[in-house]
Amino acid sequence: MFSLRRATRAYAGLARARGNATLQNSSQNVEITTPPPPPASTSAKSESVQTEPSDTAKQSPANPSSTKENVEESTNTKKRGRVWPTKRPSITLDRPRQYSRPIGVGALPVYDEALTYIKRDSKLRKEELEEYKSLLQRAESAPDWNPADIERLRDKIRILEIQSEVNLPSVRWKARNGLADLNQTVYRHLIEQRWREEGALDLLMERIYQMNVVPDMLPEMHPSFDLRVNFPEPPPQSTVLRNRTKRKYQKIEPGVFLLPEQTRKPPMMYTTVFHTEPRLYTMLMVDLDVPDLENQTYQTYLHWLQPNVSLSTFSQSPIPLTTTHTKYIPPHPQKGTHYHRYVLLFVPQAHATERMQIPVPTDEERLGFNYREFAEQYGLDAGRGGGAFMWREVWDETVSKIYQDVLNKLICGL
Q1: pLDDT digits (tens, 9 = 90+) for 48-64
Q2: Among 184, 249, 305, 336, which is most buried by a count of CB atoms within 10 Å?
Q3: Segment holding 22, helix H or strand E
Q4: Residues 209, 221: contact at Cβ < 8 Å?
Q5: What letter would DSSP give residue 272?
Q6: Which helix (H) or strand (E) holds 269?
Q7: What is the rounded CA–CA span in Å between residue 378 and residue 356?
Q8: Cis omega (within 30 of 0) for bond into 333
Q9: pTM of this prediction?
Q10: What is the predicted pLDDT for the residue at 20?
Q11: Residue 392 · residue 256 · CB < 8 Å
């Protein structure tokens, strides 16, 4: 930029010099009439004009060192280039994202008015909440209060805890972006509402009823928490990469087809539970489509069983099954059969805090496992809540390897 300006000014000076030379040449051929002498004021003004420095003199400073400094400064400016804004710090658990208004203050007056109304309503609800909390404290300390009335007060407090903050934009933004604090009732409510109303629960129930898990296995099912299952990704097509590639676990959609090789190891199970107090569940995995050749029908097979699994909002994910009651046997669908349905259940136990004593079934008792009789014997009811998942598999060449390595059987002609 600095060199361009200097070149422009030099070119303008050269043009003026050429113009003066042309005027001098033309003045030699033209007779010039001497004008009369100007008045005193005019002559003083002309003298002042003549004594002013020229444009070139104005541009060139008297101190050559300052010129050198200006040139060096312009060169450094060119080298530095444009100064870009600093990079936003990375998002971590210690420094999560923060909520910011989508619209600036005053940009949309109707938005500001709506936000003011929401905050005013939240303040009124919180004042009402404090009144009910103080009333509950007096009721719990008084011996003559009815337990049913105390329970109604607790329900009212839970409702007010949700209503006082559920409409705040910052609360909804955190619930949507994975920054919810599950210690607070309002966030548990929003996450459960999202699970129930935005398709995850609908997809699960659709696959369970389409594949006739209900009523083939159990009469009814009403899941109360979100159960997500991860299995390893499918193996590569190349036999060279099959044993050299470490496969990652990926989330599985309910009802999809999996390869038997993917389910050789137990799945990683993640839960989102909406009750804060620990409750005990019985986990079991069943194959509903094992052929019964003698009776020309199908029977079930128990692949996995673990009672007394404690779950709550703050449970660790994936679920750590440190004590294995009945060991996991991978799915092994028989050759020539239709696809097999594999169902994974977490059923609430009759007493949420009392551990059950269930004998470990033998390998022979696994085949022909009757869930209905088992549930009736131990007081299990999937209609009261729990978690559920299901997928499908068909036979391939890796099933024989599973029989050899896991079941210690050699299968011929399956």
Answers
A1: 334 444 444 444 444 54
A2: 305
A3: helix 2-29
A4: no
A5: E
A6: strand 268-272
A7: 8
A8: no
A9: 0.75
A10: 52
A11: yes
**What's the CA gap between 187 and 173, in Å, rounded?**
11
| 112-116, 129-133, 292-296, 341-345: least confidently modelled range | 292-296
- pLDDT mean across residues, the chain: 83
pLDDT score recorded for residue 13: 60
Give tens-digit pLDDT for 189-217.
999 999 999 999 999 999 999 999 999 99
Task: Please tell me the distance from the alpha carbon of residue 345 to that of residue 252, in angstroms, as a whole number.
Answer: 15
Three-state secondary-structure class, residue 221: coil
209, 213, 174: which is closest to 191 by C-alpha? Answer: 174
Torsion of CA 366, 372, 373, 375, to 10 degrees: 90
Residues 163-199 have pLDDT tens digits of 999 999 999 999 999 899 999 999 999 999 999 999 9
How do residues 394-407 score in pLDDT, each as one tens digit?
999 999 989 888 87
* The pLDDT of residue 334 is above 50: yes
Region of residue 96 (phi > 0: left; psi between -120 and 50: alpha; otherwise: beta): beta
CA distances from 148 to 51, 138, 151, 153, 158 (A): 106, 15, 5, 9, 15
Provide CB contacts within 8 A for 311, sequence distance 6+.
Answer: 225, 271, 273, 278, 279, 281, 319, 346
What span, in angstroms and rounded, lies between the C-alpha atoms of 364 and 279?
31
Q: Residue 75 and residue 69: Cα distance in Å, rounded?
A: 10
- Which single residue is written with the structure tokens 């099912």? 221
For the record, the structure tokens of 30 come out as: 């033209």
Burial of 177 (0-12, 13-18, 19+ CB in 10 A): exposed
Residue indicated by tokens 């259940």: 345
For residue 297, give both structure tokens: 């029908």
Peptide bond into 330 cis (omega under 30): no
